[in-house]
């Protein structure tokens, strides 16, 4: 009886000791699996190894013969992590003037995994996934168009789209999301260097919310000119999401994201097709502008407060922009269908106090539906 009693604590101690060991083993396995995922989440998956695509052979049309539109000094400054796009990692230059887009290839290269993904998306009625080579072909062809065909629409100043060893001695420091510096040899990676722009929605919303209609019309006219110019060069953007894809540099519109550019020769010398391409983007722009307008109606000010606020602030800015517009209209071409004449006789105070009908508001901004 005594022997049996004495063995019970030992048995409990044995079970407790092994339970602790199992728990520690589970925690260790969990950390082993979790830590890499946490690092990937914190860095957005950035690593130089994901920027190399030697498995994809070069194509002659990806080569760019023209020299860069910037000096070599631009590479002497560090570029800090800014964002991750569907096709590239984006870094901003220290002086704030440029963004560097390093194309990434972090999808699995095993064909059977792609087959499983395609089957999954087919069953869920989503867009089918394309293989790595096809995706790369689309991306680099679009980058070549952005750099060579419509550089003024994208402000791409240099692109390296092949594995050729140009810039052999050029090295660049990029700083990832965790603040870690990485030194890259430019000739080993495919990239695009682009002038940095302010987001379209941010700039245009500022003009609309302050009721600076003269500037808003100029911004919208610049955006219309951008789409028209691109279409006239035979380039179509299959992604009409104007918000994250467009921006302004000194109030001049550009397309930030050119990853869905496609060559479309039927747009050349075809005003009707060009107008249709423009309307694809203006339709979304109208909906967004009206949403900004309706949001402003919720916080509408009336009476003397609105008059004093508007007269002291926006009226002065509107007159200043009107003067600038008169000066610039003599030298800058105006897009077809743009008319600034109906803003000359508008009293800014009346604009502040009036609840415009949607059609009137769009007409005020030069976005009337024809």
Report a brief summary of the structure.
The chain is α+β, with helices and mostly antiparallel strands and 370 residues long. The protein has helices spanning 2-43, 111-123, 132-149, 151-154, 200-209, 213-232, 242-245, 271-298, 303-312, 314-328, 348-353, 358-364; strands spanning 79-84, 88-93, 98-103, 156-160, 171-175, 181-185, 191-195, 198-199, 235-237, 246-249, 252-255, 261-263.
Describe the structure in your own words.
The chain has 370 residues and is of the alpha+beta class. 48% of the residues lie in helices and 15% in strands. A seven-stranded mixed sheet has the order 4-7-3-2-1-5-6. The chain has a three-stranded antiparallel sheet with strand order 8-10-11. A two-stranded antiparallel sheet has the order 9-12. A hairpin with a 5-residue loop joins strand 5 and strand 6. Helix 6 packs antiparallel against helix 8 and helix 6 runs parallel beside helix 10. The longest helix has 42 residues.
Annotation keywords:
3-stranded antiparallel sheet; globular; alpha+beta; single chain
Tally of contiguous helical segments: 12
How much helicity do the residues have? 40-55%
The averaged pLDDT comes out at 76
- Derived structural class: alpha+beta
Distance separating the two termini: 101 Å
Element order: H for helix, E for strand: HEEEHHHEEEEEHHEHEEEHHHHH
Radius of gyration: 28 Å
Walk across the major sheet and give the strand order.
4-7-3-2-1-5-6
Low-confidence stretches: 1-6, 301-353
| Overall spatial form | globular
